[in-house]
Amino acid sequence: MCGIIGYVGDADETLSVLLDGLSNLEYRGYDSAGVAVGGDGLRVEKRAGQLDALQTALDGEMGDAIDGPVGVAHTRWSTHGPPTDANAHPHTDETGRVAVVHNGIIENYRELRDELEAEGVAFTSETDTEVVPHLVARELRAGRDPEAAVRAATERLAGSYALAVVVAGTDALFAVRHDSPLVLGVGEGESFVASDVPAFLEHTRDVVYLDDDEFVRLDAGGWTVTDADGDEVDKDVRTVEWEAEQTGKSGYDHYMLKEIHEQPVSLRQCISGRVDELDGRITVEELDDVGSPETVQFVACGTSYHAALYGAQLLRAAGVSANAYYAHEYATAPAPVSGDDLVVGITQSGETADTLSALREASGRGAETLALTNVVGSTAARESDHVLYIRAGPEIGVAATKTFSSQLVGLNLLTTYLTDGGADRRLVDELRGVASDVQAVLDESAAADVVEAFVDADAFFFLGRGLDYPVALEGALKFKEITYEHAEGFAAGELKHGPLALVTADTPVFAVVTGEGEAARKTIGNVKEVEARDAPVVVVTDGVAEAGRYADHVLDIPATDERLAPLLANVQLQLVAYHMAAELGRSIDKPRNLAKSVTVE
Amino acid sequence: MRLDSAVILAAGEGTRLRPLTKHRPKPLLPAANRPILSYVLDALIDAGVDDLHLVVGYQRDRVQDHVGPTYRGRTVTYHVQEKQLGTGHAVLQARDAIDADFLVVNGDEVVTAGMVEAVMDAHSATDAATLGIVESDRAAEYGAVSLDGDRIVELVERPDDGSYRLLNAGIYACGPSLLADIESTERRAGERYLTDAIADQIRAGNAVRGVRIEGLWSSATYPWDLLTVARDLLAAGLVGEPERSRGVYVDETASVHADATLRAPVVVGPDAVVGPGAVVGPDTALGRNVTVESGAIVDGSVLDIDTRIGANATVVDAVTGQGVTVGPGATIPGGEADVRVGTTIHEGRRLGCIAADRATIGGGAAVGPGTLIGPDASVETGAYADGVVPEGAEVRR
Fold first, then answer.
1. What's the predicted TM-score (pTM) here?
2. Could you report the predicted ipTM of this complex, rounded to two decimals?
């Protein structure tokens, strides 16, 4: 849940590269930040709070320029110990000779700490990470060179980690990963390591994706990757397609609103080359060798789990037995699975630790695995048998928006491909129109006006049935994430089995009603039930079932295929959450206690 | 002299271009198959201008969505003009970012890099301002100028006098002091104009240079002008897509059926599809993700993003906004008509129809020449539409 970056290159640039990198990684966590710049000596600055606090501390040292050819930096989201200056990274050894930044969790830190303390080492923080610099220092004292010392220290660690280490007096940087993301950036006369590509995207687009237990040395001469045994590994340098320009706010107050507005573009990108209008077919090369699985199990967390529920329903409707599981539950209590089954992990970042564990669990028991992800070269993409990229472009706002929409489109591509071999003229036509339909919602949404009536409400409920049910859950999740108001999503039919007891005149109910089938008619029945309890009702609807007649407010979406209507309804609910949070003055891009990619279990 | 910074004016709606500007400002209307603003930004960057300041206002989301935080690797700074109180007021929104000679460029007129370079080359530190001037028989419709040698002696907005042959191309190089001059310029009807501030400089005897520039300058005042803009750009080959055969530009991601006919000049944008038997062109631009189904005929038209033309439909001299649907067998035969814009009737305009964002024309429907169809309006199956169809209205049989 943290972000790290390391740099080796121009001594005058080190600090600014690191700080820019941190600001690009801020979405990974932001309760403290710090930098260490090395070379002949080693300087460390770190502060609790958002990145501004660190920047202010550094600005206070004007005239005492921090420079050096090598440096590491970190933005933190607390797992061990509260956000304080002492708990912020980088962590150092007692002499201040070794500085370490870490993303992940050192599971055996307690015993390592006991061991070091028994030797008389004094700890200054409550973090798991601090054992690392002390271990490295111990190896240095034993006479090892810095590279050997870092390697030896790493061998003692259990758990998940991406580490970057600098040692005073050494113009090199050492990094290693195990179950936590780490990428290497290759520039001209400079190189980078980071948790994620955007950290250094403005400097280079040439990246090397590191595999577990690979060790990197960066120095003025370039970069070397070695395996756990110290043997050199030949790594491919790949060019990422993302532009650095895609990670600024472009005049919007928040990344979230920018990303909501990017959906027409990202959806056109998602289907580009994958829908054949002339033949009326879906063609997704990546899925060519998936075959026809007996059953499909989805594993995911958070927003991606809602996409999973949607995907499972699509497949069941097409005659394939399919279920969605929370990845963290699946890893603990897996469903029966065999070699004829496909397990699909949905993870925006491709680094969600729970989802990776579930995929490994499934793979270990013989299932075929597929990753539905946004990040090329991510761990999920590399570890799975198949991968379908959703091509949404970088998403910085912690609340997922455009990636959810693209996941839904990806799941339609997958379902049609697995069941009808891709032949579905209606879906092709409607997919080519979905960007325009989303644009219509963006152009004409009444969400900003509707929420104004509800600033003093007690709680917010979201209802939906069938494919609208995952949208109700996602609408509530988005709402609670960024407004901090209590919000819950229900299957509409579950209402009278309990939740109705909570409905009052002060609990607005958002009902998603799309299409004209049995499901829509039944949800309208539920709408009437909450109306009878005086709850204000907002219906999000394509108008087909005339649900608007029973509502206090209506948020319209264009009529489209019943499989895509939920996607459009969700855009309205994204705007509802955004405008309510703006109305309440919340920290929209960085909601309290949350991080974008949850890379620890 | 070389200038690093440009202020691009992209805040105005362009009311005479309604109903196309319902959801986006004029700079984002299509010039062939890309927004006008893209041409302006490309011209600036190709001329070596790296510091871009976009003044946005009306429907600014659309500008921000299209341009993004940087454009071709150059940082774009947005300045919000909350109320559109004139071009001078717009320039002032960026004043804190400007401390040296700078460019001001209209975001809603197509210009080329050569024209921007010529204005920069002519401008010197002793000039209060330098304006790019093009010769045009449409000078009277825009800002006309009179030159004495390389000095501008007169600036007139839309003179009702056909004797003017020179027009202000909307590319200005300005000394930094012009910002203060704009502030001291008298308001007209509550608005401040850049041209008034420059006229004040001329009156005060300060050097305002005019430089005759060559190159493609194209602008739309009325919706049908977008057809002319597209024709100009296609004739000059100024489109981004690769040229497949002479005058036929097709993006690599587009699908054109082997039995379709593309008649030059024509451009087919990314992810666009042309079905079997369809005939597209000449003087036609298909935007991103546009679909022309089998047997349809599209001639002399500009079809913006996501528009779909049904099988066997006929579309002549039409401009569509985004996501417009024309049903199978519908007919927009084109030709000359009297077109009503606001309270003015424009006689004898060659215009098939204007269909604004997400308008639908049903299967077998017919649309008379010069018809303006508002956003989200629909013409039902088999109906006949003529004149003005307001936003969201339905035309029934």
1. 0.80
2. 0.85
